[in-house]
Amino acid sequence: MNLIPLTIPGVSIAMENQIEPIGNIIFTVPRSKTPLVPLVDAMYVKEAIQICIVVFIDATLSPNFTVYQHNAISDDGSAIVQFFIQYDGKESQQINFNAYQLSFQLNAMHLPKDFPLFGIDQIQAFLWDSDPVASRGTITNVQRN
Prior knowledge:
Elements: E1 11-13, E2 19-26, E3 39-45, E4 48-58, E5 66-73, E6 79-87, E7 96-107, E8 120-130, E9 133-141
Parallel strand pairs: 6-8
Antiparallel strand pairs: 1-5, 2-7, 3-4, 4-7, 5-6, 8-9
């Protein structure tokens, strides 16, 4: 059987230095081996969307992150921007996780000309463990003032 390696859609964007540790959480029982779902907040602020993504990583790891952006059209035909936060971690069940935050603004210069900023109603974010390949994601509505 030939296996085809999975690749992350989109293009790598320079955000690695903007991901900061912000604390940790401890569960009472070991969590699944799959990544935890990220927390996402997105809001229109002037001529941009302010985005905050928090991911939770096994506290025994010192992850190196790569962030990818993919512009897509959802099933209902609306514009959606996807962010993939990639890291490489061992597969294990843990109770202690460090939280890392990525905060940035998305504006028209980050999008193709035919992809209108103010047409974006949702942001989708994934935490992607590259080896073994596993991901968890969530969709968040962009809040309007």
